[in-house]
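Here is one chain, start to finish.
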Amino acid sequence: MIEARDFVEAARARGFSWYAGVPCSYLTPFINYVLQDSSLRYLSMANEGDAVALIAGVTLGATGLPRRGISMMQNSGLGNAVSPLTSLTWTFRLPQLLIVTWRGQPGVADEPQHALMGPITPQLLELMQIPWELFPVRREEIAPALERATRHMDSSGQPYALLMQKGTVAPCDLQADPLSVARPPSHAPLVDAAAPPRSLVSREQALTQVLACTTDAATVVLASTGFCGRELFALQDRPSHFYMVGSMGCVSAIALGLALSRPDLRVVALDGDGAALMRMGTFATIGAYAPPNLWHLLLDNAVHDSTGGQSTVSRRISFAGIAAACGYASALQTAELGTIAAWLEAGPLTGPRFACLLTRPGSPADLPRPTLGPVAVKERLRRHIGARLDP
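Its structure:
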């Protein structure tokens, strides 16, 4: 058995300062230890896939800095992380360390819900091409395990997993949790577009407006997977753009990680209604951690456009109302393009801002895909934002 301090301090010495995840009783000592240290960051995520996407955002912004991240999860939640692990971290080569608890390990009594996931956890990691080893149980095993992990991450750009068995880490009491301090509820202004104009703007018009308002070098634009990123690329390709592929619903979480780790940047996340509905828990996480440099713009055309136009349920809800309730510093829902222009150019706030623009379905014919591959897009963006780092 090791102490939480033994691992966390050895990891800190190798650049690991960001942690995100969903608690498991096996992970309690780590989470409690990290929460007591203001120079480390632990972010409590709504699900394990969001944790992977957030750490990917931290990694994306770590240009020239010894900054690494760790996603922590119970193996029962590994299923929630399959999409970002196979279509975000693998595709863009955004490495991170995974600490996965081994509930239901063969030969160890556990709850019935772990009876299947326990035996298949190693195979699941191997199917995702994620090398793994058992989490160290003695202090002298920690440094070699971290060296193997970082060597793989640096050489391949891929995650590495440590599979934690029961009783590996000694208890560590929680002294204070920053999120336990209540904040006043948000009173974000809300513009309700319940009666949109007869002719909604197109996504192309909306993206043209975004391009006009994001020309400064300190602004990074992350576009959701599907037609949103493809249309943005077709209109104008910039080094400050990040075109998501796969990992549907994760653009807001990766934007949150980038915004928190790089407060020198303005981060604009372009979301879609279908994607946002898939991972709506990220709204609450963004509101709780409240980066003031994050603009979250949702283009709502009420359909899954890239798969044939099947309806979503978005017209029956208020995304702005949800964002306001989750603690965004401002939230609006509108059908007016001019309102979005003013929102993009608004002055500083104390927290993140949200806007939902109602748009009409449809995209230009023969819409091209980005000619740069995902890794090239990532590397170009890192060069762009790296030039902004202080020497």
